[in-house]
Structure formats: structure tokens, C-alpha cells
Write a structure and sequence with these properties.
Length: 250
């Protein structure tokens, strides 16, 4: 699972300045709108909405923006329909990729995604061409500052986690989907920062490449994630420490 946790950690570092400038509010708002449309506007009854709202607050989104995004999802804020769509394909060297989007215009979104794939000599596949290689898991990224990873690991396992990864910056906790809310709430109650939590697509088999090839794919993924309609890109690329450091420094 190290590909997921390393890429998430890289993205968190690179997004800090963007968040400070207020960038990314569109993506955060769309995630809230989709969650509200699919599960209702009450975060106490809709855990996905609560997660989306937590991320928006962590990104310094004003309360009025959050309320408007919920209203759009529940049909109170206009007739524009925002929906979730996932595109699948292959990057270089057969690396499987899932592109998770929220959009109000599928034609625009698929055109932009296809363009990035084409420019990087990658290919979009049919539905389930690569999705079968992934399983959905709950992931909770806890900042490692001042924490004993072994203590966090034991707390997570006691709460019902299925796996835990730790590095110098973050402890990543993995759960089954049905246990996600319970584990997150238990860790939060124990005093851990669980703001960075989401349902992630975790690959069953990882692909490991040399550093230059890994960097090429990371640049491709980064370009996809820079698109307004793309929320998250999942892949089965295993990111070595050397590759992560090289990309982070770029």
C-alpha cells in the first residue's frame, strides 16, 4: 500500500500553499455537493458528507461556501447536477490508473482527461479494465509529529484497523469500508488528528519501476490531479523513497 501513502504525503505537502491561497475550493465544494446529493444534507446521518465537510474546513473553506454546496446537493441551490464519474486506464509500463472526478459536464471532463492521457502516451480503457485490481478501503492519515508510531498502530488495531503504515511524516491507517467510521471516531476520541480521512482505492498488486520511469508517471498523475474536475487519481505504482524525494524536490 506504500504507493498510496507516499503519494498522499507528497500531495499534502504540495497542496499547503494552494490551500493557504484558497485554491481548490471548487473541488472541495463539488465533493460536498455530491455527498449531499447521494446521502442527504445531514452530516450526522451521512458520513461521506461529514468527511467532505471536514476536508473543506481543513482547507479553510468559509462556512457559507460549505452551506451553499450542501444546498446544491439537496436541490435547494439551483438545478445544476454534479455527479461522480471514474475513468480507467493505463499509464506507462502498464501501471493501472483510476481517475476519480466530480463534474457537471461529462463531455468536458472526459475530453480534458483524455487529453492528458494522450499527451503522456497513456491510454484510457473501458469500464472495469483496471478497476478489478483495486479494492475500496478506509484510509486515515495521522500526522506523525511527536507521536510514537507503535502506540498509534496499537490504538488503530484495537479500534479495528486492518493495516497500518508509518513513516517520518505520517501514520496511515487502513480499514474495511464498514469499519471506517468506527475506527476514525475511536482514533479521534483518543486525541489523534483524523482530518485527512477518505475512502481510497487500494491496489491488490503493486508495480515497481526505476526512479526515472516512476517520476514520469508521477508527473502524469500530478497533471491529471491539476484538472478542475479531477478529485483523486489512484494507481498501483509503488513509489520508492528515492522517487518520492526526487519528485517532492522538483
Amino acid at each position: 500500500m506504500s504507493g498510496h501513502s507516499k503519494w498522499a504525503n507528497i500531495k499534502h505537502k504540495k497542496e499547503r500553499n494552494d490551500k493557504a491561497r484558497g485554491a481548490g475550493f471548487t473541488k472541495l465544494a463539488r465533493a460536498i455537493t455530491v455527498a449531499a446529493r447521494e446521502g442527504g444534507g445531514n452530516p450526522d446521518m451521512n458520513f461521506n458528507l461529514r468527511l467532505a465537510m471536514d476536508k473543506a474546513r481543513a482547507g479553510n473553506m468559509p462556512k457559507d461556501n460549505i452551506d451553499r454546496a450542501i444546498a446544491r446537493g439537496t436541490g435547494e441551490g439551483g438545478s445544476i447536477i454534479v455527479e461522480r464519474v471514474i475513468y480507467e486506464g493505463y499509464a506507462m509500463n502498464g501501471v493501472a490508473v483510476l481517475v476519480d472526478c466530480t463534474t457537471d459536464n461529462r463531455t468536458r471532463t472526459v475530453g480534458e482527461v483524455r487529453s492528458v492521457f494522450s499527451r503522456h502516451s497513456c491510454s484510457i480503457g473501458e469500464s472495469n479494465s483496471v478497476a478489478w485490481q483495486f479494492a475500496q478501503r478506509g484510509t486515515i492519515a495521522i500526522p506523525a509529529d511527536g507521536l510514537d508510531p507503535e502506540v498509534v498502530t496499537m490504538a488503530a488495531i484495537d479500534a479495528g484497523a486492518v493495516d497500518v503504515e508509518a513513516d517520518d511524516d505520517v501514520v496511515t491507517v487502513y480499514t474495511e469500508v464498514e469499519d471506517f467510521a468506527r475506527v476514525k471516531n475511536a482514533l479521534a476520541a483518543a486525541g489523534y488528528d483524523t482530518t485527512e480521512a477518505e475512502l481510497a482505492m487500494i491496489p491488490s498488486v503493486m508495480v515497481e519501476l526505476d526512479v526515472p520511469d516512476t517520476l514520469q508517471i508521477l508527473k502524469f498523475i500530478d497533471k491529471l490531479e491539476s484538472l478542475d474536475d479531477v478529485d483523486r487519481v489512484w494507481s498501483n505504482l509503488n513509489i520508492s523513497d528515492e522517487a518520492a524525494a526526487a519528485f517532492d524536490a522538483a
